[in-house]
# Entry
Amino acid sequence: MDCIFCDIINKSASAEVLFENEKVISFLDIRPINYGHTLVITKNHFDNFLLVPDDELSELIRVTKVMSNAIIKGLNSEGFNIVANTGRAAGQSIFHFHFHIIPRFRNDNFSFKPNLKSYDNGSMKEFAEKIKMAL
Ligand SMILES: [Zn+2]
# Structure
């Protein structure tokens, strides 16, 4: 299976690695939204968020927090977004699950530009019921 992130883990592809332990590795995104845009991934390959076992996800989010702190301190970032795209419809392009940490600055010209919807009469409850029934 071809996976650029597995290649980075195996050191057959290069990356600007920021942190690494037994389970998790973090490196700079080569196409940053803002400079310092960081990725955090498990060393085991999982296609998406839903497939990552809880213990590995727990370590992944712990390291994501550590990296976020380092971005704030190291880059004087005023904030950050943690993003995880899951599925092609959500813009996932590399199918080895990863968190993005995007350093943010006032007036950095980046926006998710949401087109916010409104719920029609009663439809909010319908959506809530569909989700709750699936729990
Ligand atoms: Zn992989």
Remarks:
- The chain has a mean pLDDT of 96.
- The helical segments are 4-9, 54-75, 123-134.
- The pocket of zinc ion is lined by residues 3, 5-6, 45, 96 (CB under 6 Å).
- The CA atoms of residues 10 and 43 lie 9 Å apart.
